[in-house]
C-alpha cells in the first residue's frame, strides 16, 4: 500500500541515493532528508520524489564544484 504512494524503505532509499543505509538513517535523523514512519511498525520511510529532488541537488552541487578545477 505505501509503495503505491511512492514510499521507500531505508535500503531502497540508500540504493537510489548511492549511499549506505546508515547514511540515509543519519541524514533523516539530522533533518537533511524528510523521514516518515510506517503507522503500524514504525519503520523509517522516505518519499521517492523527495529523494529524487535531493539527488538532483547533490549532482548539481557536485558538478558546480568540479567545473572550475581544470
Please give a structural write-up:
The chain has 70 residues and is mostly helical. The protein is built from three helices and three strands. It has a single domain, classed as Multidrug-efflux Transporter Regulator, Chain: A, Domain 2. Helix content is 51%, strand content 11%. Strands 1-3-2 form a three-stranded antiparallel sheet. β2 and β3 (44-47) form a beta hairpin. It starts with 6 loop residues before the first strand and ends with a helix. The model has no long low-confidence stretch (mean pLDDT 90).
Question: Keywords, please?
Answer:
3 helices; 3 strands; mainly alpha; elongated; 3-stranded antiparallel beta sheet; 70 residues; Multidrug-efflux Transporter Regulator, Chain: A, Domain 2
CATH topology: Multidrug-efflux Transporter Regulator, Chain: A, Domain 2
In spatial order, strands of the major sheet run: 1-3-2
Question: Which parts are unreliable, with pLDDT below 50 for 5 consecutive residues or more?
Answer: none
How many structural domains are formed by the residues? 1
Total strands: 3
**Largest β sheet strand count, sense and barrel closure:** 3 strands, antiparallel
Count of helical stretches = 3
- Can you tell me the CATH class? Mainly Alpha
Element-by-element helix/strand order: EHHEEH
Radius of gyration: 14 Å
| CATH architecture tag | Orthogonal Bundle
Whole-number mean pLDDT: 90
Q: What distance lies between the first and last C-alpha atoms, to the nearest angstrom?
A: 49 Å
Structural class based on helices, strands and sheet pairing: mainly alpha
Helix content: 40-55%
Q: Looking at the structure, what is the overall shape?
A: elongated
Strand coverage percent: 5-15%
Amino acid at each position: 500500500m505505501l509503495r503505491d504512494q511512492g514510499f521507500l524503505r531505508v535500503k531502497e532509499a540508500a540504493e537510489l541515493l548511492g549511499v549506505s543505509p546508515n547514511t540515509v538513517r543519519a541524514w533523516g535523523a539530522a533533518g537533511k532528508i524528510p523521514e516518515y514512519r510506517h503507522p503500524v511498525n514504525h519503520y523509517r520511510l522516505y518519499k521517492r520524489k523527495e529523494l529524487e529532488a535531493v539527488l538532483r541537488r547533490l549532482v548539481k552541487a557536485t558538478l558546480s564544484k568540479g567545473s572550475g578545477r581544470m
